[in-house]
Design goal:
The protein contains 8 helices and 8 strands. The strands form 2 sheets. A 4-stranded antiparallel sheet has the order 2-3-1-4, with helices on both faces. A 4-stranded antiparallel sheet has the order 6-7-5-8. Helix 4 crosses helix 8.
Amino acid sequence: MTRYVALLRGIGPATHAKMPLGALAERCATAGLADVVSVGNTGNLVLSSAKPQGEVEAIVTGAVTSFGLGNEVFTRTARQLAKLIEMAPFPDAAAERPGKLGVCFFHKDPRWPKDYFDYKGPERLTMLSSHLIVDYGGQISVSRLTIEKAVGARMTQRNWSSVLRIAAAMVSTDG
């Protein structure tokens, strides 16, 4: 069995009213996924399956759709998440301000814009496969980055603290 995290895009109060995360976890379990637990309150499900990653993503997407919602689902294996953490491109930000270090998860390796390779800030950027790591430094709310528009692909973002919490849950619930 492979451990996965399913990251839901756009989870908030309106979606919680229609789809409590505990109920989503139950539907995923009913659909054949094992050891399904919700981590945090922002749409992170840790689960196990012998199925390939694409099928797991489709199963979770189907469960979300069954609530009448269209939130996108992004999946990563425990191994993929561990590799991302191991590569931690901004160790100072991870240690000093993990809540302001963002990890953007894309479905596949996007075509990174040329100006992201030469980006002069105020944020620091690193592209790692299908992830964009952003050290926002100061306040995230004042960032002028328009990541999806610049990259031309949809994504979901979690801060470094959340990524570490998800990774810990993947290990602690690993059978």
